[in-house]
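Submission sheet (multi-component)
Chains listed below:
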Amino acid sequence: MLTTDPLHAPPTLFTTLFAAAHEIAPDVLMHAAFVNTYALRTPAGLLLVDPGLGQNSASVHQAVRAWSTAPLHTAVYTHGHADHAFGLRAFLDAGEHPQIVAQENCLQRFARYRLTHGLNARINQRQFSLPEPWFPRHFDWPTLTFRDALTQRLDELEVRYHAAKGETDDHCYVWVPTRGYLFTGDLIIWQAPNCGNPQKVQRYPAEWAQALEEMAALNAEWLFPGHGLVVHGHAAVRTVLTETARYLRVIVDQVLTRMNAGQTPEEILHAVEPDAELAKRPFLQANYDHPKFIVRNLLRLWGGWWNGNAADLLPATWEAQAQEIVRLAGGVDQLITRGRTLLEQGNAVLAAHVAEWATRAAPGDRGAQALKRDVYERRLAEEHSLMAQGIYRAAMNDAKQVLEE
Ligand SMILES: [Zn+2]
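Outcome: structure written.
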């Protein structure tokens, strides 16, 4: 789980982000179970960075306690996501009383999570193809929050927390200057930045790039990411930070230029592409999020929700539109035949639209549902982005359910 040569490291998939807990750097224990949790030995006790998922709390606690008996002085949530800020329970149940540090927006996040539990449980189910809706209900609330920055003295060791926006509005990164240790949270995840997620709240690509550039200026020797490989060496760390920033800037700049030139959201979506060279980097592959989703997020951030098509402003229902298309085609069978042809020609993108028209016009038609099933099975097979895969798989399963398969 360590590289000194990030340009030639193997690309990481989320399913491969597991490793037995081990001391990855002097005085730093790494526990990798989808998310990376780190414990840092300090003169005042342990600093735990990202306690992790609730279901891994016992495993993190056990690993940390097998490694050190020093008291848990502080835990920090680099942000309030379910995979980072919910693993503290086993420590608290064992009678530890750490300070819990987080950026102040983490409080509003937890409040929002309470308000939208059902929604988030269903989003997670779809995104990760879980058997059931799932989302945490129990919160171990931060005890020490900050707005811009916070410096903590753990005896003679200084720890700095810096607020950032990026994947979330409640991010922070942790900098230990005398050790050259930088804990980035999900500002680095060994994937194309997760700032486009189609199902989740606003993300901040430009501020993300800015935070990466700030971190690059620290000249850290070690980079401990929220997911993926730890990076060792000043030049290696700088490469990962600056190239990830540049990947984002390339997208941000194109979107902004085109928005200011008066292009419509759909034109911009189709026109903007990531930098081809950077997109090949092992730490920037789009196996989780998708660069087109980042474009969508920027359009939402800077613009309204209207897509540029006047018919969609106060539209007919999808069902009414689909019925009209079926009428024009001369029946749903014509749509199914055309969808099959497109699929055979390798055009699953267009075939998916035809399948949606067919199933929305005639939801009980088995041929229409079978087309939908096969179209999304193909899209799933052709797609690398886990976020897209989750949505395609759910759509395929919806069709299978109607077909009673
Ligand atoms: Zn994460």
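Remark: The two ends are 41 Å apart (CA to CA).
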